[in-house]
């Protein structure tokens, strides 16, 4: 096998100097030659659906944080601020495209019909993974940074070999650009023209490390070194993400090989509920990104169109209340698993080594049971 790698090429990036954008911060819609051809289906009804989606998703995320603070969940990775990126992608690609995500893409899981029980099980510690990947066309969340990118490329190559038309989507944050797995994935994807979309939510921090320290050059330039074209969009603009997702998928499906989509966004909350972001970023920066809130931006656009925003917000409240109630109810339905269920689903067919470990566990568990008092002769049994 021989491979040829290209040098970084600015011409392979669209939106390098300024992320591609359709909606300004004040909600004003403006023209964009790259994105506009892929927004022909946008009308007030669609905008309303996207607004409801993002608003309900934010309520769900806030509720999960509250559940963690009450001790109902061991941990939660908030996505507040990244609603446009996840809804923009999740509501655009067909459900047959296969998603390989990190742990923060609960918005994409919600778009794929993942139930509250399935979403919370891992974070409550009652399951090792939450759902059937083939039923949702979405792999269960990957905690190891960037490992899912290799899975996505392998799946994409297999899909193409079998003649399928669906694409694979590898979702990750900007911190994944510092991991070898992602670079290996891009080498294989570029070398074999794999039908995979690399979807990066650049939320500005890899835990506490700012992206400016992680990458001395714009991260959008890195994929060009592998010969992979890049679309760099405003990740707080749901229409920009929607159009770029559609454009990227179209190019990939036509056989042009992988595409890298960078959604420039911001994590308004902590990395996880164990993090304290006040230790590494200031209030001025936070305030600047709050003004770019993706939900508020779309609301302003709807107001400019004359949409009935007040009644829409009432609908959002009803939908959000129902969704968060479902999340709270799910907690009560997640029963602790039997201890030896740890050994289930490890292999399709259990081997002798695993069976031996199961029996050793059972013996250990039995040894912990309180001893029964010895009965004296003649006492009733």
TrEMBL record:
It catalyses: N(6)-[(R)-lipoyl]-L-lysyl-[protein] + 3-methyl-2-oxobutanoate + H(+) = N(6)-[(R)-S(8)-2-methylpropanoyldihydrolipoyl]-L-lysyl-[protein] + CO2. GO terms for molecular function: pyruvate dehydrogenase (acetyl-transferring) activity. It comes from the Bacteria. Residues 55-311 form the Dehydrogenase E1 component domain. It is an enzyme of class 1 (oxidoreductase). Its cofactor is thiamine diphosphate. It holds the Pfam family E1_dh. CDD domains: TPP_E1_PDC_ADC_BCADC (cd02000). Its EC number is 1.2.4.4. InterPro entries: Alpha-ketoacid_DH_E1_comp, DH_E1, THDP-binding. Keywords: Oxidoreductase, Pyruvate, Thiamine pyrophosphate. The branched-chain alpha-keto dehydrogenase complex catalyzes the overall conversion of alpha-keto acids to acyl-CoA and CO(2). It contains multiple copies of three enzymatic components: branched-chain alpha-keto acid decarboxylase (E1), lipoamide acyltransferase (E2) and lipoamide dehydrogenase (E3). Belongs to the BCKDHA family. This is 2-oxoisovalerate dehydrogenase subunit alpha.
